[in-house]
Amino acid sequence: MTEIKATNVVWHAGAVTKEDRERVMGHKACALWMTGLPASGKSTIAVALEKALWDREIHAYVLDGDNVRHGLNKDLGFSPEERTENIRRIGEVAKLFTQAGVINTTAFISPYRSDRDRVREMMDAGDFIEVFVSCSVEECERRDPKGHYKLARSGKIPEFTGISAPYEAPDKPEITVHTDKQSMDECLGTILAYLEANDYIPKG
Prior knowledge:
Elements: H1 18-25, E1 30-35, H2 42-55, E2 60-64, H3 65-70, H4 80-99, E3 103-107, H5 113-122, E4 128-134, H6 137-143, H7 148-153, E5 175-178, H8 184-197
Parallel strand pairs: 1-3, 1-4, 2-3, 4-5
């Protein structure tokens, strides 16, 4: 799926750099890459984090898995190959948002470690922050807000991560939150503390 077909193209550099944008905005840009099982709380945390950052006048945006599949990736299914292409595409979008000076949070299952590592490699050092949204399968299935686990158990959703398709947890994520043990405020506090300690955002 990643065959290069456009060969007669040349990258056109702009006159405004990422550093220029960061200076004007008053914070660094990065991609907070949230990964975890379905119903682990990725989208919920991402939306709450976006609001918390925005309230501090920090330019933030959420790239949500389901939302992206409504448009950019609506032509992709859930086979291993299509999951890889899904992550490759959103990785490129996250990179563009980062170059634009925005703190963007992606909320994708992104089940394969190699796919996440590939996105990390395409970004500059420090621009990719992996956030492992840890939650037991049992708790995710208990929540099951979309009813997907029930459908997967009955065989109506094939290749469902955590049930009939694998999930590879990160080896060394920059941040880990445990949504089956921590409150929302505690999870947000962990992420914000990391961003402050590493000078991505001013201390609140």
